Amino acid sequence: MFLTVVLAATSLTRFQFTQMHMGVAVRLTLFATDRATAERAGTAAFDRFAQLDTVMSDYQQASELNKLCARAGQGPVQVSDDLLDVLQLSSWFSTLTDGAFDVTVAPVVKLWRASRKVSAVPDPDLLKEALSKVGWRRIGLDRLRRTVRLDAGTTLDLGGIAKGYACDAALAIMKKEGVDRAMVEAGGDIAVSGAPPGENGWRIVVHGLDHPPFVLSDQAVSTSGDLEQFVDIGGVRYSHIVNPKTGLGLTNRLQATVIARLGAFTDPLATAACVLGSLPASLKSQTGAEVFVTHER
To answer: Of 45, 145, 181, 239, which residue is the least packed, with the fewest Cβ within 10 Å?
Structure first.
């Protein structure tokens, strides 16, 4: 679907398109000279989202990610540029956060998904077994040969970085189609390119954060927390975000919003900020990230 608003003071027109990808509604807001250009750019962006889902999904049995995990313990496996890029970024963020962000947490996440359905904490023995398969050093990357090696039993969950990466990729493909003023929203992840005509940037309001609207251009913002995704078990509210070191869903009732230049940065850093309670100054310096933390009542 699309919404069109003509801007009299400029030759650009505002368009909006929405499709479901990666389990969320992906919304594109863009400015183009004509509808044909807008629709071409929007289609290319959604196609890129769909293509990345076939690479990074842990729900699609035939995804490249699941095929890689099926070969854990069998030596190096050649992978696509996108999967290698995401895993390299994930490894970097795991190093910077001392494992607060860790894509090998998949075995534990799987247990908690089941627990949310029955409102029960995972069995301690099963949780201990799952934790034995978690650790970001279980991934071996070879950029030169473009291969990934997983230790036996390792499975991956890219839910904390895939959408941010896809938002960046969608902006990049739209620029190739002649659209360089756009915003991509995918759940709690937003990435923007050039500002709307006559504006300093895109005005973004974060629900649950007591802060004036952010005005952003060529940046991204991600928000994580248990505001919407959680389960109450025995009077305790457990977030969908899991601490990779303890295997437990977070109970700190915290929401973290991160702004940086790329969605592939803000997405994992928002998750890490929830686990850590914020982000160390050294990490913010290295990534150029701004962090805003809200403790929910």
So the answer is: 145
Q: Where are the alpha helices (DSSP H) in 16-73?
A: 35-56, 64-70
Is the distance from CB of 198 to CB of 10 less than 8 angstroms?
A: yes
Q: Is the pTM of this model over 0.90?
A: yes
The Cα–Cα gap between 87 and 93 comes to: 10
Distance CA 241, CA 160 (A): 9
Quote the tokens at residue 261.
């230049």
pLDDT digits (tens, 9 = 90+) for 66-119: 999 999 999 999 999 999 999 999 999 999 999 999 999 999 999 998 888 888
For helices 81-96 and 35-56, give the axis angle rounded to 10 degrees.
Answer: 70
Per-residue pLDDT tens over the stretch 135-170: 999 999 999 999 999 999 999 999 999 999 999 999
Taking the CB of residue 171, how many other CB atoms lie within 10 A of it? 26
Based on DSSP, count helices (H) and strands (E) in the chain, helices before strands. 8, 15
Residue that the structure tokens 């620029």 belong to: 175
